[in-house]
Design brief:
Blueprint lengths: L2 H9 L11 E4 L5 E4 L1 H18 L3 H25 L19 H12 L10 E7 L3 E7 L2 E11 L5 H17 L8 E7 L3 E7 L8 E3 L5 H6 L3 H10 L3 H14 L6 H11 L3 H14 L4 H13 L6 H5 L7 H13 L3 H14 L5 H37 L6 H25 L2 E2 L2 E2 L17
Parallel strand pairs: 6-8
Antiparallel strand pairs: 1-2, 3-4, 4-5, 5-7, 6-7, 9-10
Helix pairs in contact: 1-3, 2-3, 3-4, 5-8, 7-8, 8-9, 9-10, 9-11, 10-11, 13-14, 13-15, 14-15, 15-16
Length: 449
């Protein structure tokens, strides 16, 4: 399916409808399959994670991610409407229980505590406290004496803090597995936007382990290198999760080679340019002539509409790369410096490495844009000349001069404004200026499949 029909189909979607479970979803093979609430949410999370690898066009990638996000919200609202929290507890003190994520909490508790004949009213949920996450006291089902539920929201502004707390708590609970009377892990659920951990001090007869789409992240958080785990999440398209993991590693080892640049890439992909700027500035202070740090800092500043600060970054004489040449060319074009933009675009194409493939694609788009600018200027000048020639015959034709010049100036202003808007979104035309592939393929990178 090409881009236009897919985008038109997404625009016709009605996400306000309530769906019933099991929900029917049409697969890529056009077969209809039935999914439970948990399975459907995991399916759409997987589609979000794999969208960059399934589609080359950024507009289609963005549309697919937006569609899947709306579908997840629709599924959660529908689950709460059908099944609801029932008498699980009072949600007035909990921020999480007042969001659609309450559906995931209710589904998790029913799966973890269920036994034959257990209904929603048989589970008691009481809010305990809020910190980096939220803590609840849970009782019912296979936990008649009660246990604790820890909930961590892994998206939003506090994602890095929540993920760091999740990492600490998982390590603590796993370390106490064989200690009599100590609180230890019963069951955990991990997804790109929510983590739930059930723990207690009693013997646990229910299901154990880690479930969910990101179940493998539990081992990464506790045992593996944070940089590698973050880069793996970045390659898989989970920018928010990657940002949390990489920032945690950045706090532990800020001097580590490449971690600042990795945080900056994750921040830009997660639409967190302020966090990207901080990491890129730190990396640039460590290595003042590092072209990648300078490039990421410049992109982060442009994303915050701080173009006035970019020239100082790009003017460092020893910083050279294809990506920097492309960015300098785009800025020159946005300022109407057409000859400089063309020369820099050719330089970007000539210097491009295998990790800067986007610079080649971007330079081709830029040369085409320069041609459009020249056309606008040529149209204005030729129209003005024609108007001047006609005025020799009819003086009233002089009105064509301001119209011609004004039309050309208006068209160029619109084109330059479109470039500036694209830079705030981290792209030029349909070319993304930042992707995971921009990072060096060194020993800190995850193995590529």
């Amino acid at each position: 399916m090409d881009r236009s029909p897919r985008l038109r189909r997404y625009q016709r979607k009605d996400y306000s409808q309530t769906v019933e479970f099991p929900v029917e979803i049409v697969g890529r093979d056009n077969l209809v399959r039935r999914y439970t609430f948990d399975e459907a949410v995991r399916l759409y999370h997987r589609r979000i994670a794999t969208a960059p690898s399934r589609y080359e066009d950024p507009e289609t990638v963005d549309a697919e991610i937006a569609h899947c996000g709306r579908r997840i919200d629709q599924l959660r609202r529908s689950y709460l409407e059908h099944s609801g929290l029932g008498e699980l507890g009072d949600s007035s003190r909990s921020a999480l229980l007042q969001t659609p994520l309450a559906a995931d909490i209710a589904a998790f508790l029913r799966r973890a505590l269920a036994h034959a004949g257990l209904g929603a009213a048989a589970i008691d949920l009481a809010f305990v406290e809020k910190g980096a996450g939220e803590c609840f006291w849970v009782r019912g089902g296979v936990a008649p004496r009660g246990c604790l539920l820890y909930a961590y929201r892994l998206d939003g502004r506090d994602a890095s803090r929540s993920r760091a707390a999740l990492e600490r708590d998982l390590a603590r609970l796993r370390a106490a597995t064989h200690e009599p009377g100590a609180e230890h892990l019963y069951l955990a659920y991990l997804s790109p936007d929510l983590a739930l951990v059930l723990a207690g001090t009693e013997a646990w007869p229910g299901p154990t382990g880690v479930i969910g789409q990101d179940a493998g992240d539990a081992a990464e958080m506790v045992d593996a290198d944070g940089m590698r785990a973050g880069l793996a999440a970045l390659v898989e398209g989970r920018a928010g999760a990657a940002l949390g993991l990489l920032e945690a590693e950045f706090e532990r080892s800020p001097e580590r080679l490449g971690v600042g640049n990795a945080v900056a890439v994750a921040g830009l992909l997660a639409s967190e340019p302020q966090r990207a700027e901080f990491a890129a500035r730190y990396a640039a202070l460590q290595r003042p002539n590092d072209a990648l740090s300078g490039y990421l800092l410049a992109v982060a500043l442009l994303a915050q509409d701080q173009g006035g600060l970019v020239d100082a970054v790009l003017s460092r004489p020893r910083m050279r790369s294809s990506a920097l040449s492309l960015l300098r060319a785009i800025l020159a074009l946005s300022r109407g410096q057409l000859r400089a933009a063309t020369a820099l675009a050719r330089e970007a194409r000539r210097e491009a490495t295998d990790t800067e493939w986007f610079a080649v694609r971007g330079s081709k788009r830029l040369v085409a844009a320069v041609g459009w600018f020249w056309f606008l200027r040529g149209f204005a000048v030729s129209s003005a000349i024609l108007g001047g020639a006609l005025s020799l015959v009819d003086p009233n034709a002089l009105f064509l001069l301001p119209i011609a010049l004004g039309t050309g100036a208006w068209g160029e202003r619109r084109a330059r404004r479109a470039i500036a808007l694209g830079l705030r979104e981290g792209r030029f035309r349909d070319v993304r200026l930042v992707s995971p592939e921009i990072l060096p393929r060194d020993t800190d990178s995850p193995p590529r499949q």
